[in-house]
Amino acid sequence: MAMQLFGVPGLPEITPGSDLATMIVEAALAAGTPLDDGDVVVVTSKIVSKAEGRLVELADVQPSQFAIDWSTPWDKDPAVTELVLREAKRVVRQVGPILITETHHGFVCANSGIDQSSSGAHGRVVLLPLDSDASARRIRDGFASAGVDAAVIVSDTFGRAWREGQTDIAIGIAGMQPITSYIGQVDPHGHEFRVQALCTADELAGAAELVKGNTSRVPVAVIRGHVWERDDNATIAPVLRDQSRDLFR
Amino acid sequence: MAMQLFGVPGLPEITPGSDLATMIVEAALAAGTPLDDGDVVVVTSKIVSKAEGRLVELADVQPSQFAIDWSTPWDKDPAVTELVLREAKRVVRQVGPILITETHHGFVCANSGIDQSSSGAHGRVVLLPLDSDASARRIRDGFASAGVDAAVIVSDTFGRAWREGQTDIAIGIAGMQPITSYIGQVDPHGHEFRVQALCTADELAGAAELVKGNTSRVPVAVIRGHVWERDDNATIAPVLRDQSRDLFR
Hints:
24% helix, CATH 3.30.1330.100, homodimer, alpha+beta, CofE-like fold
């Protein structure tokens, strides 16, 4: 099995209403690497958010007293804290200047995934897509309209428990299931595999980061040669561990 | 930037004392994809453990009373539990039949990373390598003896907090730093990046899993086209979050 990964350079500036699927198809073509059936296309959530208008001017945000009280000693912007809380269904950890939340989607991450950097202007932040599976589906549908059957992953960069360094993971998916299950399968010696389910989507998102790079402006990567089974009902939901099964929340 | 990944098939059965580096060099050559300078070679920890003789016959293990008492109601083998405890510096969570430990290396994982499946025989388990950085270094040195300057990652399959599905991550490294830091760098608008440090080693290990596959018998993958800076003092230590900085341990 061999796999190729490459970034899609040369995307135009993304603004609210941008047709990402068409832009990606055209940029890949212009780069001499047109999209192909069977590709997995990984799209950084930030450009998805920008295309969907998930930008907020901090000056327009009225922070709550709780947001003000907690932000001040840590020299944080209360307007950002207010948005973090609004994007969360609950606070998972609030220790020192760190605020880890569970977003309305069910992602556990720092600051509800809000991005204060490189939003294209000072005083403006980028929120996660409202429904990242729907975002992935729209892009996949756009590819289909251009005649390409590609799976789509919307990725973001999250921290983890126990390990330093962030990694890119999947927050939305379309066309393929995010988890590959080995439950019930046995090895050549008749033992069940220790590994029962792999989060292929997170491995694909992380692999894509390696060719996108966080500091370069290549927010889209193509993975070619990964075999996936078409499933138009796939969502990221199977990756979200229910709180009742989670020993660390 | 483009990257290629391929598995290295055709490795012979690994036994204690096997010279992994030479076996990998020869298998890659025989497969028509010889190793090259600049490659990152990801080796599944299980074959490293086998080559290093990290196999234990369960019949030889005398379980403690604590191991017996906890194992019995959960229908677990007390000898395995005993090994899990011996491989751990402490128990992080022990809930129902789940035993999550911090290994002597500092990895937080289920069952101290002990593998009961596909160990080549019933009644035998595979422990993690004793010093997985040293294992990676030995393989890298073996490649150097064959004239190839390649970075080496020893990988294993671990679960995570909050998210279902396991992923392959790095437990040992040689030749390159595991973390890429962006601290102090600014984007085109002058903002500091939200992402400050990426665990490239984990992304590489996860990417390698996609071409190795957990059920196939391809325990080695080569990543070509990833740019890394040579550092012969690199270890996995920077990835291990200190307990004092960890909100989830």
